[in-house]
């Protein structure tokens, strides 16, 4: 996607914000963003889905599948088509990714992919791309070490720059109060690991995915800043540790203006160069 002019990216993302994409359009859009190759995905999926998993890992995947997006029609039946598909995709990916293997949280990502990319081999390919080209593997690996060392301090630097009053407030109540190095760890883990699943209403979460798949990781930071800005006035009124954490961890029923939030995220326009400069400072 690097060869696409920035002005065209702007037009496409504005359309995403304005309109609700039909499922078939979203499916095609995600496949395009992820640059999925039919033959390659099928070949690799057949290879890795036919390999056996250690019993303990297989059992864990099965347990997690049974907890994944159960309210959605596709996954409501135990051992129904949706759950079986999800198990097979996760099994194949665990065999493929010998470094991280299967980690909790992956089932949600794969579960959402399968709803909009129902072909198992393509959903497997999509999961591969998210963890490699979109670098989710960096966050999941080594007990979420990358998330803690990269995402937490980077987002806090951005909050201190764009939302200084809120940063001071959160740092004072959450970090100093509990002697924590990074207050972000109290609430953003699922925002990034599960790409805002259950942290935003479903239609808004899908638009976040659309934006993320088009712009990459910087979009998640922009969305996080926009969400915090939308909640800022209320958060500043809370001076109790538990109340603050509760509000920050229960954003799934966000009742603010969704279009305004997305437009504001777009205006933050965090880019890869900006992230790399911050990461270089906070990780060394």
From TrEMBL:
Entries under Pfam families matching the protein: RabGAP-TBC (PF00566)
Cite the SUPFAM superfamilies for this sequence. Answer: Ypt/Rab-GAP domain of gyp1p
This protein's name: Rab-GAP TBC domain-containing protein
Please list the residue ranges annotated as the Rab-GAP TBC domain: 20-216
Organism encoding this protein: Arcella intermedia
Q: Which GO terms describe its molecular function?
A: GTPase activator activity; small GTPase binding
| Tree of life domain | Eukaryota
């Amino acid at each position: 996607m690097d060869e696409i002019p920035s002005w065209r990216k702007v037009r496409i993302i504005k359309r995403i914000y304005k309109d609700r994409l039909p499922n078939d359009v979203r499916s095609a859009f995600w496949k395009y963003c992820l640059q999925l190759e039919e033959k390659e995905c099928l070949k690799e999926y057949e290879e890795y889905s036919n390999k056996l998993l250690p019993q303990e890992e297989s059992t864990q995947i099965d347990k997690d599948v049974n907890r994944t997006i159960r309210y959605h029609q596709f996954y409501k039946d135990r051992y129904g088509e949706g759950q079986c598909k999800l198990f097979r995709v996760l099994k194949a990916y665990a065999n493929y990714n010998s470094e991280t293997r299967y980690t909790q949280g992956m089932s949600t990502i794969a579960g959402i992919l399968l709803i909009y990319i129902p072909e198992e081999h393509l959903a497997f390919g999509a999961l591969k791309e998210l963890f490699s080209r979109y670098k989710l593997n960096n966050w999941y690996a080594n007990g979420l070490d990358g998330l803690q060392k990269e995402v937490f301090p980077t987002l806090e630097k951005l909050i201190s720059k764009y939302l200084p009053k809120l940063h001071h407030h959160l740092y004072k109540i959450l970090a100093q109060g509990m002697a924590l190095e990074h207050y972000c760890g109290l609430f953003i883990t699922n925002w990034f690991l599960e790409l805002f699943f259950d942290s935003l209403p479903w239609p808004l979460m899908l638009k976040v995915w659309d934006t993320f798949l088009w712009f990459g990781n910087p979009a998640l930071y922009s969305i996080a800043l926009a969400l915090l800005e939308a909640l800022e006035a209320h958060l500043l009124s809370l001076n109790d540790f538990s109340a603050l954490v509760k509000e920050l961890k229960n954003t799934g029923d966000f009742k603010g203006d969704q279009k305004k939030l997305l437009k504001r995220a777009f205006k933050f326009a965090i880019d890869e160069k900006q992230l790399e400069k911050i990461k270089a400072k906070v990780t060394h």
